[in-house]
Amino acid sequence: MGPTSSFTLQEAADELGVHYMTVYRHVRNGRLDATRTKRGWEITPEALSAYTDGAMPDPAERQRRFEERLVAHDDAAVWRIVHDELGAGKSAASILRDLIVPSLHSIGARWGAGELSVLDEHQATAAASVVVARLGPFIRRAPVTHGSIIVGAPSGDMHALGPAILSDMLRANGFDAIDLGANTPPVSFADVIRAAGPDDVDLRAVAITARISTEPGTAAAAIINDTVEAIRAADPHVHIAVGGAGTTGRNPAEFGCDEVTSDIDAFIAGLSSPPA
Ligand code: B12
Fold first, then answer.
1. Looking at ligand 1, which residue's alpha carbon is closest to its atom 85?
2. Mean per-residue pLDDT of the chain
3. Number of the ligand 1 atom closest to the C-alpha atom of 109
4. Helix (H) / strand (E) containing 152
5. In the predicted model, what is the mean pLDDT of residues 82-105?
6. pLDDT confidence of residue 1
7. CATH superfamily name and code, 9-137
8. Residue 247: how many CB atoms within 10 A of its CB?
9. Can you give the residue ranges of every domain in the chain?
10. Taking the CA of residue 38 as centre, how many other CA atoms within 13 Å lie in the half-sphere pointing to its CB?
């Protein structure tokens, strides 16, 4: 295939007058758009001109490339993209919000639509877990001025990235997030509250993250009720929020909690005054 249609990596390198490895690296970190075919990487003339113009792809395009590297479970490229975003001045919280979360949602939808295999989905998740863990220390933790929030997914819900990412977002906003992770039994939420003691004025809220559907009558809904009850028994006054995509269409009365929301900004805004 000649340079008038698509370029190979070597042809692109010749065209640009750079080393083959430079082109390869920029393809891998998403700076230069390329498609992997049976013949190897192919670069369109448009992609090559966008690259030579120095045009930074728009956010949607950057997210798409990041998602593809996740699906390819290419940990090194995934991290390089994140590293470049950090280098370009993006905060870790905005990388979570704009790159990682939309990619996970899209991967789930593509898996649901049969476009990706379960293996693709699992491998992408493994790559996402690695990058979320690596990004953690880059979260600019504001001084803890707003108190602490206990975060966890209920018993039976194995989705750990939701609580991990929500916790990081809370940390970036002046809260001390205590992430209990996936599959947290009701008693564990209560134990953490009791361990902090009844006078812990610092405890602002408990956030229960539900990724599995909690339609009325399901086991997932019942376990949320049990969790809320256990938390209330340990602290009758603490604010309890239930959220996550498994709670779409649900309301607080169904769970006995104070709030049902998946909107992190709204949740934070509701708690933003310092503890009394
Ligand atoms: C990764 C993943 C897994 C991994 C989880 C691994 C891990 N370490 O976390 C594994 C492979 C274990 C898994 C298993 C299953 N999964 Co799954 N999984 C996903 C996937 C691809 C991504 C989930 C994720 O991490 N999202 C990213 C997080 C950050 O987003 P989030 O959860 O929406 O949370 C954000 C917000 O909602 C908000 N938020 C969340 N909670 C709260 C709470 C409050 C108070 C607030 C303010 C905000 C807030 O903050 C987060 C950050 O923005 C989704 C696809 C998707 N669309 O999400 C499917 C998905 C959730 N899984 C699904 C299913 C069906 C399953 C399985 C049943 C599959 C199976 N047949 O075995 C099992 C269930 C296991 C179990 N019992 O839990 C379905 C759920 C459908 C439903 N509504 O019931 C989805 C939607 C895929 C699909 N399209 O069908 N899964």
1. 108
2. 89
3. 89
4. strand 148-152
5. 90
6. 42
7. Methionine synthase domain (1.10.1240.10)
8. 27
9. 9-137, 142-271
10. 0
